[in-house]
Amino acid sequence: MKASDLFIKALESEGVEYIFGIPGEENLDLLNSLKNSSIRLILTRHEQGAGFMAATYGRLTGKAGVCLSTLGPGATNLVTAAAYAQLGAMPMLMITGQKPIKASKQGQFQIVDVVAMMRPLTKFTHQISSASNIPARVREAMRNAEGERPGAAHLELPEDIACEETDAKVIVRSQFDIPHASDNSISAAVEMIESAQHPLILIGAGANRKYACQTLTAFIKNTGIPFISTQMGKGVIDERNPLFLGNAALSANDFLHRAIEHTDLIINVGHDVVEKPPFFMEQGGSEVIHINYVTAAIDPVYYPQQGVIGDIGNSIERLTRRITPQQSWDFSRFMEVKAHLDRHLLEGIDDDRFPLYPQRLVADVRKVMPDDGIIALDNGVYKIWFARNYKAHMPNTVLLDNALATMGAGLPSAMAAKIVHPDRRVMAICGDGGFMMNSQEMETAVRLKLDLVVLILRDDAYGMIKWKQANMGFDDFGLDYGNPDFVMYANSYGANGHRVTSAGSLAPLLEMCFNIPGVHLVEVPVDYSENDRILNHEINENSQKI
Question: What's the CATH number of domain 3-162, 3.40.630.30, 3.40.50.970, 1.10.10.10, 3.40.640.10?
Answer without folding.
Answer: 3.40.50.970
